[in-house]
Amino acid sequence: MKRIFELTTKDIESLSKKELKQIIATSEGRTVVSETIVSYTPYIREVSNLELAASFGADMITLNTFNFNAPFIWGVHPEIDAMQGMGELVKKLEKQIADNLVDTDYIRKLKKMVGRLIGVNLEPVPEGSTYEPGYCLSRENLERALAYGFDYIVLTGNPNTGVTHETICEGIKLAKEVLGEEVLIIAGKMHGAGSGNLYDVACVKDFVECGADIVLFPAPGTVPGFDLELAKQMTNTIHEAGALAMTTIGTSQEGSSESVIEQMALLSKMAGADIQHIGDCGTFGMALPENIKTLSIAIRGIRHTYRRMAQSILR
After folding, report:
1. What's the predicted TM-score (pTM) here?
2. For residue 169, what pLDDT is reported?
3. In terms of Cα–Cα distance, which of 297, 2, 268, 299 is closest to 309?
4. Could you say which of 19, 20, 149, 277 has the lowest number of CB atoms within 10 Å?
5. Domain 4-310, CATH number (from 3.20.20.70, 3.40.50.300, 3.60.15.10, 3.90.1150.10)
6. Cα separation of 276 and 44, whole Å?
7. 3-class DSSP state of 281
8. Alpha helices of the chain — where are they, by DSSP H?
9. Residue 87: pLDDT above 90?
10. CA 53, CA 151: separation in Å to the nearest integer?
């Protein structure tokens, strides 16, 4: 069985949920997830943030603010340039979004383009929320995620969404019902987004019992009081419950110095994390690209990192 950083585009196209989970589990804590805000224009003009993240060593790419009611990702449609005249731009955007709504291969095409596993954030917001419906967890959006061919979904909370431990639990149950054994379910809280941080170890066990395949929590050093010992407790509890553990850098420290990223990466590995996530606000909709590479090198060295980077070109 290949390790996560050895997978080719062809491998990814045929992976089952069970196989993917097993591959991550046997990759010895060397899986890198990069999150990108797809509603922003790209960090580098004419290159999507997905391609940039892949080229700097990411194995998995999570789309944040992907709108299921108006699906569109800046940077993957070269004919649509924000520098165009406004009238022409709006016309092209409307047509592309209309096409994407009926193109169930939209995400599958992106996976072929970047050669990486692709997931999407869905916000399990409380009832009565005014948050953009296209970003929210719902039966309809879950069915669309399944149809598009996403490899995984992430149930968490962006700032000011009102997401809580309880709404995440209910969201996991709904996701499990709709997605079954087709799509990996990742759930948890990266920081105080929504309604406060989660420090209670029992919370992560609840997420597993509700059906999460992977549970996320803050990397040591990202939120106040989250240190190596607490991260170890979280990881051990998740593993004992039968799931995988993912540490996250989601506090805009994805834009910190490389030495800070290295420390967080090593502490997360000491804690036993199976996956390490780096967030989307280091710069314009993604981590500083060099910090993705730094994270990768810290947990798996130059040999595996450079091969991963080269696989963005060599499919």
Report:
1. 0.95
2. 96
3. 297
4. 19
5. 3.20.20.70
6. 24
7. coil
8. 9-13, 17-25, 49-55, 86-102, 106-114, 139-148, 165-179, 201-210, 228-241, 258-271, 289-310
9. no
10. 17
